Amino acid sequence: MNEPKNRDSVTRRSLVAATGLAAAGLITHGNAQAGVSRLSGIAPPKGGRHVPPFRSMRDWLDAMEAWGLLVRFKDVDQDAWEATAIMYHLVDLYGSYGAPVVLYENLKIGGKWFKGQVVGNYQGHWHQEAILWGLEPDLVDPRNSYRTGLAHMVKLLQANGGDYPQIPPLVVPREKAPCKEVVIEGDAIDVTAFPFIQGNPGDAGRYINTASTFSYDPEWKQNFGTYRCQILGPRLIHLNSEPNQTGNAMFRRARERGEKSIRIALVLGQDPVTWLVSGSRVPISPKKPVDELAYVGGLRGAALEVVKADLSDLLIPAHCEMVIEGDIDLTEWVAEGPYHETYGYLGNRNTDRFRFTVMRITHRRNPLVMNSFTSIAGGFCKAPMDAYSDVLWKQRYPQINQIFYHDEAKGITFISIRKDRPRLGLEIAKAYSERSLIAKLVVVVDDDLDVMNQSEMLVALGSRWQPGTASEIYPSKPASFFEPSSPDGKTTSKIAIDATMQWPEEGGPAEFPALNRNLFDRSAASDVYAKVLAKWPDQLTRKPW
Q1: Own/partner pairs for 414-418, CB < 8 Å, 24+ apart?
Q2: pLDDT for 39
Q3: Is 41 part of any domain?
Q4: What is the rounded average pLDDT for all residues in the chain?
Q5: Are 77 and 153 within one domain?
Q6: pLDDT tier for residue 286 given thresholds of 50, 70 and 90
Q7: Cis amide linkage into residue 201, ω under 30° from 0
Q8: Is 382:263 a contact under the CB 8 Å cutoff?
Q9: pLDDT of 177 higher than 90
Q10: pLDDT in tens, 207-226
């Protein structure tokens, strides 16, 4: 016997997605004459700055407001931690993937009121995974917005031989670069004059925590990545690039060559795709020097406009909000931190980081500042990076349906499969555990459950998993750099879990009981969800955040 008789042939996720999209169509049709968005109740974006490719952060924020996914807060006292409290509350209320973009206007920092604007949760909502690429988000099940974006990215990879397309950046003259509108140099330089905040009481101070650090290596060429920067004074910053990051390696290589300093540029207020590439592993593990800005262009579907930095030959996004240029001192290490890390715990104070001296600042008039609210709000859109894993793992195991890592459950990865032979679940769980640094727990489930639904994953663990026979514990495996329980900061124990319905060959029952919801979805009319949603739209329609 290779398969229980009652095993579902149609997954609930696919059924609900199909009926949900149909229901969304009914709602859209019902509001069509009024010309309103089915997400926010306002006129949907139809062109200009509201649709991709987005040239700047400002265009992206305009689109978020048009979609009803941005909320403004005025007169925010961060000395009383109000900005952080707002972000915590929104995530508590709507979840990590349901909270809106926030725009703080007029903040109190260090006893002083700043008239500037601070952006938070720049990319975190499910719907942004579709909107960023010009795709339609799904009101009925917002998780489908992510699935739409992921499918789009997988198609891009498949159409381009397993990598994303590249469109080289377009260099524009300085006078056409908005980031050069205002120049600050010499004694006028003061990074503390901008509304960079301290995000948590445990932090060492105020931080620039969303800058893309642009640097150059003779062999590796230009690189950029997102590294946090602790503000020590008007012109002094301690930059934290972790040992496993390319920027750190570039700085150390320059030091080994005998160089005393290296010129860099901090780019702030990036367009949404540059921000995504800066913080993610896109492109993934390149074996030769690559132009990351060309990947930005390829993902956008149009060349990114760039301009030469003032103090180096670095090419930087022309439509960013601010550029901070200067030198990294390679002659000695400096201390940095602590800082509220991505796992949700206060990180250690580092002793081997880099001193950065600011030599010039250029920015747009009335520049926007972005704060990441690390471990609270979203980071960057996930689909482009997740698509790499999706394609590679499905090549190895075609039975895999979906892989998903929950930002809300650090260190846990869920994988759904169409199990076609005994012990496949544990085999895949073990293989993934051995390859992924961040996956401390890998849970494999049947494809009648939704890996993006944490409640269903708990159901699988509580009612399908047999810990004694469907688990593999690894006493020591390489760990994520930020894993707080690691005994040595380098390794961690892991567990691979097979939470699929156990077949008789695996010690399971001859017939595994059917899940009630699956019985309902198989037996009810296929359009039942669409019908009830159309009949009671006000009661059943989810708000955009």
Answers
A1: 414/443, 414/444, 414/445, 414/451, 414/457, 415/442, 415/443, 415/444, 415/445, 415/451, 416/444, 416/445, 416/446, 416/447, 416/449, 416/450, 416/451, 417/444, 417/445, 417/446, 417/447, 417/500, 418/447
A2: 37
A3: yes
A4: 89
A5: yes
A6: low
A7: no
A8: no
A9: yes
A10: 999 999 999 999 999 999 99
Instruction: Give the model confidence (pLDDT) of 458-510 as tens digits.
Output: 999 999 999 999 999 999 998 887 788 888 888 999 999 999 999 999 999 99
Q: Give the tokens for residue 519.
A: 């019985």
Terminal CA-to-CA distance of the chain, rounded, Å?
Answer: 47
Number of domains in the chain: 3
Mean pLDDT of 13-35: 36
The answer to whether residue 532 is domain-embedded is no
Global pTM?
0.89
Amino acid at 516: N
Is there a single domain that holds both residue 395 and residue 303? no
Model pLDDT for residues 517-531, shown as the tens digit of each residue: 888 988 998 889 889
Match 């769980």 to its residue by tokens: 429
Q: What's the one-letter identity of residue 336?
A: E
Q: Tell me which long-range contacts 489-494 makes (C-beta under 8 A, separation of at least 24).
A: 492/440, 494/433, 494/439, 494/440, 494/441, 494/442
Rounded CA separation 293/295 (Å): 5
Q: What is the CATH number of the domain that holds 282?
A: 2.30.110.10
> Could you report the per-residue pLDDT of 381-429, keeping only the tens digit for each?
999 999 999 999 999 999 999 999 988 888 999 999 999 999 999 999 9
Give dist(CA 429, CA 269) in Å, integer.
39
Distance CA 121, CA 113 (A): 22
Token pair of 460 as six digits: 């699988």
525 part of a folded domain? no
- Which pair of tokens denotes residue 451? 């890996």
DSSP 309: -
521 neighbors 19 (Cβ within 8 angstroms): no
Which residue matches tokens 């207020």? 269
CB 502 within 8 A of CB 483: no
Question: If you average pLDDT over residues 176-204, what whole number do you get?
Answer: 97
* Cβ 118 vs Cβ 369: under 8 Å: yes
Residue 278 neighbours by CB distance under 10 Å: 24
Report the C-alpha gap between 263 and 485 in whole angstroms: 36
**25 and 108 within one domain:** yes
Structure tokens that stand for 73 in this block: 């807060």
Q: Which domain holds residue 498?
A: 380-508
What CATH number did the domain enclosing 468 receive? 3.40.1670.10
pLDDT class of 45 with cuts at 50, 70, 90: low
